[in-house]
Amino acid sequence: MAQRTIDEKLVVIMGRSFQSLEKELFKHVRSMGLTPTQFIVLEMLYNKGPLTVNEIIETSFSSSGNIGLVVKNLLKAGLVDKQIDTQDRRVRKIRLTETGQARINDYYPEHLKAIEHCFRGVTTAEKKVLILLLSKLKKSFVAK
Fold this sequence. Notes:
This protein has six helices and two strands. It has helices at 6-31, 36-48, 53-59, 64-76, 98-118, 124-142, and strands spanning 80-84, 92-96. The radius of gyration is 18 Å and the shape is globular.
């Protein structure tokens, strides 16, 4: 059997780390009665304000078909609505409703605690280094 290269080992550990992070955070999200993707969309609208579906797709980790369905379900649940963009009337922006805003306001502090819990074994200095390294890695993909 061939020995793994350092790059292969890095891919494996990053993949497993991300799976563990997702599992822990999504456990918390599911306890809120939301799917992970629903929460991601609500969190984006909470932090960035109204967005188009295309902007949501570009920022999230999901496919366009999946986001369309998620937004449709959030509309049905009354957590978001569509509004006409004041700058361009052809554009529809997705925004949190009062109900959606209240729901994310209730859950967001707990979500932040869950994130902090996930990184409890890493120092602030180590987190800063990790951010720099992952940012550098991301830029290497774009540079291709």
